[in-house]
UniProtKB/TrEMBL annotation:
Residues 1-38 form the signal peptide. This is Molybdopterin-dependent oxidoreductase. One of its GO terms (molecular function) is iron-sulfur cluster binding. It comes from Eggerthella guodeyinii. Residues 937-952 have a biased composition (Basic and acidic residues).
């Protein structure tokens, strides 16, 4: 297996059974055996199975959470889905099917699902919107007319689109709507969820290489700021549990002890929001103990590049996502030392030959270097899941001609004007900064003991099996690092730890989104759609405060959008919007967003449910559930799997597939979706056929193949791309085929040239740490009144963000929002288990139920996010009473991407009593005084049981 090879480098389940499966918080830990349980992973030779009694077994992919690539079998009897179970061919989910997947049966047949287009007849903000049923023709005609009127009268940037989390079959709202409306203003959950990690890695290494190949089962498994054993966007649930159990060492970095974390070998229990300091502490230990990969630092980072403070920043023009941008850097270039020099040749000092040499970012090669033949071997992952291909690992290439780039110290150089300048290397500059983050200093900042931090860093960075030629595995760094106004810098720190320890695009390492036939966002952008005008990105909402929004070219800032809706503090107002599964509660301040939506002239909402957001819509359009649609799919993370959603049951009422909704909206607005002049508005079937065209198949042909053979291993299907590691060596890391990474310098940038360009004061050039702005350290006086640090966003076994609160199985198990509090703190506050408590800041207060938990550190509480109450009839659906997102400081955001300050700020906590509660009731009540559902025996849950009749 380890022989060296050569390759040329390339220029039906009852409710009781359900409760046994999902009722305990640590359900995932019950699934730690080496092989999938027989009940969830039976052996089957064929796909869709029909029988004489009208029973079919259909292979598809689940969408019970944001992951959307867990393979499942759906049993359909007489046209009704009756059972969901794991698909044994789905290696990226280990044949598992979690509680949210099971509850999808109730979601699909829920009596409150939207079944028909609806139109508002009462004023926005009324408890009763006055919905009336209208036809699709009426709905689309009115929506098209209203949107065109706003665009023609006020310009495209006077409108915005909204998109929620990873419902791949509605992602047109994320990009396509920008062209349809001609606006750069998009309110995307992506800004606070994955997006900060993706734009960070996109600027300094390779976009979305925050994804980790957990399916490769790393030797050291690091979970940082999340609990993917419950749910996640990439590898999660059973896959995570198996990776942790099989790993030689398991490390968690989290303020609270997570479900799987109690089994970990090492725990770094940091103060919320101080992830960057912990990461810099790890780097301090790694660098001090020479545990970094020196060849990587010299050859694949810009660590050897020279910082010249005596020159004006200069560079070249390139195309960013939001239009042309002029890269300007103080890194020393050939054009700085000779008149006819190239601005893309970066100077380094060669210690071996004692002279300046260069790396040419125009070609991807060092001075005198030529393309070469790569050698390598099969990966050697000893715990790899059965049936998963190992993949091929190229050997690291050295320097040819031989040089030795200097990484420490400084060099005196002569500039082209004849003056001399002393230039320090980037690595030395960063080393000087990191030197301050000793384990003892980091303990003062984060409360992680110096010994625990040192042990974690050394364990992670010391190869368990040096013979493999690569590191122990990547870091599964997750959402928590994105929510304390330091998200991009935190991501850069994690990315750098991964890179310098030999875990970038290696087995079990961080290697980005799976390369496959299918695009990650199916039908996100029609071939005939115009792109939003480039100049619109100069005026995208929020760009004055967050200049990099233009470079990212993905979203507008959420707070700036709500400011514009409210016409307060924005450069121009917003008048209309289109929402697809978006959520007013997910970022910025939910109450401010709610007030903004009320002021819009027109809002079109496409969803499955009546939600707090849809309560303010003018027209509602019903979308289909995942059991009702066909859609191609690949792993959005590094799972390495390719498959499909396959329609299992007929859709509810007049609900439509999101793709057809958007295409027909284009038609109503007179905008071609397709570039085909003979068919400018194709149906979704033609879009599905187009997605399969690179395989030489129609959608139906691919669907039948998938039913028979199951999920495809992309390492096996695409051996030169996903099946090969270290793709920066082969040219597959970049779209232009050059060796290197996706940065302006083609290196992992410790010193970011893009950030330097947009923030020329230099404060963010390096990956640095900043204190959360409302922490007890940043605002000690405020902490006197608000003494408890609040964190939030944890994963819940039966919910995903704002989803599933109306599903009886889920709500029975988890009927109320919980706030975890240490028993010591609870005793001091006179709070007992199950008490309703107030959580308050100067921006408002909400109530949640006290859950006494020793796994949360004293002085810290953990609240649940995005709660709302589908059982309520009031306009807000109760989110204003219980959602912690109502307390967010809207004006405090990450300066490099705008992600909201969702956690790691201080609050006060006290017991809710009849005297201090509306209606004299500590339990949150609807506008008429009716209590919310608080127990599994509430009769209102029965009203939500599946309705199998009248689906036409």
């Amino acid at each position: 297996m380890a022989n060296t090879t050569q390759r040329r480098s390339f220029g039906t389940m009852s409710r009781r059974s359900f409760m046994r499966l999902a009722g305990v918080t640590s359900a995932a830990l019950a699934l730690t055996s080496a092989t999938a349980p027989a009940a969830l992973a039976e052996e089957h030779d064929s796909g869709t199975v029909a029988s004489s009694d009208g029973v079919q077994r259909i292979r598809t992919m689940c969408r019970g959470c944001g992951k959307m690539e867990c393979g499942v079998w759906v049993t359909v009897e007489n046209g009704r889905a009756i059972k969901i179970e794991g698909d044994e061919s789905s290696f990226a989910s280990s044949g598992n099917s979690c509680s949210k997947s099971q509850a999808s049966l109730q979601a699909c047949y829920h009596p409150d699902r939207l079944a028909y287009p609806m139109k508002r007849t009462n004023p926005k903000g009324d408890d009763d919107p006055g919905w009336v049923r209208i036809s699709w023709d009426e709905a689309l005609a009115e929506a098209g007319t209203k949107l065109n009127e706003i665009k023609e009268q006020r310009g495209g940037n006077s409108m915005f689109s909204m998109c929620g989390t990873s419902r791949i079959y509605c992602m047109a709202s994320a990009l396509g709507m920008q062209g349809i409306l001609n606006t750069a203003n998009t309110h995307q959950a992506y800004q606070i969820c994955k997006g900060p990690r993706h734009v960070a890695t996109g600027m300094v290494s390779a976009r979305a290489y925050s994804w980790m190949a957990t399916v490769d089962r790393p030797s050291v498994f690091v979970q940082w700021g999340g609990a993917s054993e419950l749910s996640n966007y990439d590898d999660s649930c059973r896959t995570t549990v198996d990776a942790a159990v099989k790993a030689d060492k398991h490390i968690i970095v989290d303020p609270r002890q997570t479900n799987l974390g109690k089994e970990a070998d090492i725990w770094n229990p940091l103060r919320p929001g101080t992830d960057g300091a912990v990461g810099l502490g790890w780097l301090n230990v790694i660098m001090e103990n020479n545990l970094y990969d020196e060849l990587w630092v010299k050859r694949w980072t810009n660590g050897p590049f020279l910082v010249c403070e005596d020159i004006e920043p200069s560079g070249w023009q390139q195309m960013g996502a939001g239009g042309p941008e002029e890269i300007k850097t103080r890194l020393l270039k050939e054009s700085d030392v000779q008149e006819d020099g190239s601005p893309k040749r970066f100077m380094v000092y060669d210690q071996l030959n004692q002279r300046l040499t260069y790396f040419d970012a125009d070609t991807g090669y060092w001075e005198g270097e030529q393309p070469r033949t790569l050698t390598g071997k099969e990966a050697q992952q000893k715990h790899l899941a059965p049936g998963v291909t190992q993949g091929w690992v190229p050997d690291p290439t050295g320097f040819d001609p031989e040089i030795d780039p200097q990484i420490f110290g400084q060099v005196e150089v002569t500039l082209k004007d004849g003056s001399t300048s002393v230039c320090k290397t980037v690595w030395q500059t960063f080393s000087d900064y990191v030197a301050d983050f000793t384990p003892e200093k980091v303990e003062e900042i984060t409360s992680v003991s110096a010994d625990a931090l040192r042990e974690a860093a050394i364990t992670y960075a010391t190869p368990i099996d040096p013979s493999t030629g690569y590191g122990n595995g990547g870091i599964q760094y997750m959402l928590a690092i994105e929510h304390a106004c330091n998200s991009v810098q935190n991501s850069r720190i994690c990315d750098l730890i991964v890179g310098i320890t030999g875990n970038f695009d290696t087995p079990g390492g961080n290697r980005g989104a799976t390369a496959a036939t299918f695009d990650e966002e199916f039908a996100m952008m029609g071939s005939g759609l115009p792109m939003a005008s480039a100049d619109l990105w100069d005026k995208v909402l929020g760009v004055e405060d967050i200049p990099l929004l233009k470079h990212h070219g993905i979203w507008a800032d959420s707070t700036a959008i709500w400011d514009a809706c409210n016409n307060e503090g924005a450069p121009y107002p917003l008048y209309g919007g289109v929402c697809q599964s978006g959520d007013v509660m997910n970022m910025s301040n939910a109450l401010w967003g709610w007030e903004g939506l009320k002021k819009l002239d027109f809002l079109l909402d496409i969803d499955l449910w009546h939600t707090p957001t849809s309560q303010l819509a003018d027209i509602l359009l019903p979308a289909r559930h995942w059991l009702e649609v066909d859609c191609p799919r690949r792993s959005q993370g590094s799972g390495g799997m390719e498959g499909s959603h396959c329609k299992c049951v007929e859709p509810l009422g007049e609900s439509w597939f999101d793709v057809d909704i958007i295409i027909q909206l284009c038609k109503a607005m007179g905008i071609p979706w397709s570039a085909d002049p003979d068919d400018p508005w194709p149906d979704s079937i033609k879009e599905l056929d187009a997605a399969c065209e690179p395989m030489g198949l129609t959608w139906e042909e691919w669907k039948q193949e998938f039913q028979k053979t199951g999920f495809r291993d992309c390492k096996k299907e695409y051996p030169d791309d996903w099946g090969t590691y270290r793709r920066y060596e082969t040219g597959h890391c970049r779209s232009d085929g050059k060796p290197g990474l996706q940065t302006p310098t083609l290196k992992q940038e410790i010193w970011s040239t893009i950030i330097e360009t947009y923030h020329p004061d230099g404060r963010y050039n390096l990956p640095t740490y900043s204190e959360p702005p409302e922490s007890p350290v940043a605002q000690p006086e405020r902490a006197q009144e608000y003494p408890y640090i609040m964190t939030t966003g944890r994963r819940i076994p039966v919910y995903f963000h704002s989803e599933h609160r109306q599903l009886p199985w889920c709500r029975e198990l988890w009927p109320v929002p919980r706030v975890e509090i240490n028993p010591k703190d609870a005793l001091e506050l006179g709070i007992e288990q199950g008490d309703w408590v107030w959580i308050e800041t100067e921006r408002g207060k909400v109530r949640q139920v006290a859950d006494l938990y020793h796994g949360i550190r004293p002085g810290t509480i953990n609240c649940e996010h995005q709660w709302w109450l589908p059982e309520f009839h009031g306009a807000t659906k109760g989110f204003d009473l219980i959602s912690i997102n109502c307390l967010v400081n809207k004006d405090m955001r990450d300066p490099l991407c705008g992600s909201s300050y969702a956690r790691a700020y201080n609050v006060k906590v006290y017991k809710a009593t009849p005297e201090n509660s509306p209606f004299g009731n500590p339990v949150p009540c609807d506008v008429d005084g009716t209590e919310m559902i608080t127990s599994p025996d509430d009769p209102r849950l029965k009203e939500w049981l599946p309705n199998y009749e009248g689906r036409d």
